[in-house]
Amino acid sequence: MAEKKTTKAAPKAATKTAAAKTTAKKAATPKVTQITINAENVGFKAGDVYQALAKSNKALSVAEIAKAAKITAEEAYLGLGWLFKEGKVTNVEGGIALA
């Protein structure tokens, strides 16, 4: 009978180990930040993008603009939209530059 108890106890331990491994394998969900879209915030992002382009004195990609301005790519796109509408930036072969 001792062998039967040992046999029954082993699968329970294995189940707990499998459950622990399953829990450990779950990937952490990425932190999602909300961007408030209104004229004031988009205008600030446009200013950040403009300043980044002015400092570089050359055409930059969206990723480079976002890195230089210390904003997300989505925020860079918002700012670029504003600046394109005002005619302050232009699309050139190397990326986006001041007009």
Number of strands: 2
- Continuous helix count: 4
Radius of gyration: 27 Å
Beta-strand fraction estimate? 5-15%
Strand order of the largest sheet: 1-2
Helix amount: 55-70%
- Mean of pLDDT: 83
| Sequence stretches where pLDDT stays below 50 over 5 or more residues | none
- What are the secondary-structure elements, in order, as H or E? HHHHEE
Largest sheet: 2 strands, antiparallel
Oligomer classification: single chain
- Shape type: elongated
Report how far the terminal alpha carbons are from each other: 87 Å
Output the structural class: mainly alpha
What tags apply to this protein structure?
99 residues, mainly alpha, two-stranded antiparallel sheet, elongated
Task: Give an overview of the whole structure.
With 99 residues, the chain is mainly alpha-helical. It has four helices and two strands; from the N terminus they run H-H-H-H-E-E. The protein has a two-stranded antiparallel sheet with strand order 1-2. A hairpin with a 2-residue loop joins strand 1 and strand 2. Helix 3 packs across helix 4. The protein is elongated and about 85 Å long. The model has no long low-confidence stretch (mean pLDDT 83).
